[in-house]
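Two proteins were folded this term; both appear here.
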Amino acid sequence: MPRKTPKLDRRSLITGAAVASVAAIAGRDGVSVAKAEGVSAPATTNDIQVANRGQYAKASLKQESINVAAVQSQLYSIDLRDRAKTLKRNLDRVLRLIDLAQNSPEEWNGERRWGSKVDLIAMHEFPIQGFQPWNRKELNQIAFELPGPESEAIGERAKRYGCYISWGCYAKEKDWPDHVINMSVLTGPDGKIVSKQWKARNILGLFGDGALIGTTVYDVLDRYVEMYGWDAVMPVARTDIGNIAITAVGNEPLLYTCLALKGAEVLVLSVTGGSNSEVAKATARSARIYTMGVGNSVSPNNIGFPESSGTRDQGTVIVDPRGTVLAETDNHHEDIITARIPIAEYRKTRRVQELPMALLLPVLQQYQPLFQPNAFLDKLPQTYQEAGELVRKRMGMK
């Protein structure tokens, strides 16, 4: 994460961003394209890396085109009654799927005897840990340190194949004791973590009386911005194969639009639970970016759930900026799909989405959602039920 920055008032920052955006439309000084990735977190919204008149921050490309793969894998949840054994089982399976995506399974002596090298492998939200309604104590038992043994094992594969791998997990951060963060991770071809991207927010109302307890940016927004800056709220990894954003937030078109405006060229929608395929098609077309909607397959061995849980919405898909499907699973079994992205040509011809900000900002500024940010700064719920009570209370429902 970038270094800490001074504490800033959220409302004044949002207002400042609005003024800057309207000024840019009017032809005056607006939000500038920020420096390349690796600089300190911005102190104000004026330093957010966002497109300005079609230009946005990027790193130089190492090749003209890239091959991408989306892995539709089973959910195998860690069993806390036998944590070590089931964690090893799940990690070994993920490593095998990476080998299969690279056409280099162990049975072929690790040789690529079929297909081509893949430059980016995308996995869903919880490929190693799975998903269960764990309480906070249990979540902390299965959450990963980053870096840690699991990320290093994936890093070894990324280095072996000279590729990037995106994957999700529950993670711990030393600056956030007792929090378990819903994290998207991008591992690079040097075997190291390139980007850790927190989930922006949890969706509400899908879990009956309960709610999710994994920490998101929205749950701790003010402290998060104080520590990491506004640019990190919606991060984009600027790599030598393109600008990559990963999100496990489902059905959030404004979020996807903002990631595209920040320069995302490849967006990975990694929601475990099946809201990826149709959303990916719509997002690619509207935001004019390559979109990979990758979900889980039918999972007959996931503890406590029917085997078809999370397999709605037509599976896994890779879509180009016109909304044309480049690859798509035709069933809900475990599968891997691949496509080729002419990333250099895309950069030459890309037209960043035009938004009439002078029309939209007055509405967005005045709109107030029922559920305000920073809920987990007030109280850290221990169970799904406590989280549900917190949601209802903050929304004035009881």
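Next, the second protein.
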Amino acid sequence: MNVDVQVAESRPSGWFFTRISLFWVGLSFMWGAINIQVLPAVIPDMVGSDLQGTAIGAVVFVGLAIAIVVQPLAGAVSDRARFRIGRRRPFMLAGVLVVVPFLVVIGLSPFYWLLFLAVVGVQVGGNIAHGPYQGVIPDQVPSHARGRASGFFGIANLIGTILGAAVAGQFIAEGQLFLALLTIAIVLVAMSAMTWVFVREAPPPPESFGPIWNEVRRRIRELRGKQAFVWLMGSRLLFFMGLQSMDNFLQLFFRQGLGDDSPEGKTTIVLGTVLVLAILTSIPAGWASDRFGRLRLVAAGSCLGLGSAVLLVFAQDFVQVVAFATLLGVGLGLFTAADWAAAIDLVPDARAAGLYMGLTNVATAGGDALATLSAGIALDVVNQLAPGYGFRAVFALMGLYFLLSVVVLGKVRAHVHAAPHSRVLAPGA
């Protein structure tokens, strides 16, 4: 059976795109709350201000390093699953059930080491769900509509992130950490239940696969001949390194760098501005990427991120931070809509979509992990050498990552061999 048999609709509707995007809201709500608000709020009290950046970077790095392994493996297992109810949703449900008890542990952790282990547990469960979920677009969306689907996925991701950061920030500001974690669990379970009801999967195709480790090794070897996909993942890695360099330390910047007495609220406003602009940009950007090519939009998004980072190095107050972050919001919208669609277009083998789209998390989660660790170390080191300048170093590092993302994107164009119907490059490119 060809994988195209599983495409749910030849001309998908807005409701179709919405319902396959619901699970993104739950996942991004969780990570937006934990990475942006929870960890920066609780870790400095556990380890002290001298090691806060490194401690935050370490817990994020190790957790996401685990995710880089778990997500593609879970995607590969789901590729070969033969459940009558579908091959993706059972793993999504199982992952959520693993996550919930670890969220409770995070809310009750009095020690850094216990918090560390709980975050690792959340990463394992979250990526058991996330890897298979990334196979939904290749399974169900026809190629001519993947830009729009990526736009909806991007919007769901952004909405979840801003809501998670806002809700958790409000609870934390009121001293209600456990209620913040309980809310995360409720939202994640609710989105999982809605996905189970509204997303229908066709019976999986009777593809034959060998042992999973052999399959993973074979697919990784296959990438050697698919340089366009590999370079796109490199560009994606660097983009997310730039993005997360700001996100995960913004609350600390307001509290310590600018001396603000309401850092949670200010963080929510800035990220809300970024994400609302990204949401407003994503839908037209998805439409444009289906017609004019993906890579131009991805490059424009990275350039806007670079401009934002350069300006943030010189930001002196809250208003300037908001103003400079608007460029990043528009850039994120362009990138979100086009990059995901380009990755799907360049997947070497659609029969293993879950595995390959899981490998894209090497870029997404890897970017978060490397950025948080490197920016955290830079924050601590520069602050010790030149007190007060650590956050400027973080923004400078953010700009460097965006610049390298644009440079690496040029290698994608050099290696892509687009078929006449491909939307990776613009028609006639």
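Confidence is low (pLDDT under 50) at residues 1-9. The domain at 3-415 is CATH 1.20.1250.20 (Growth Hormone; Chain: A;). These notes refer to the second protein only.
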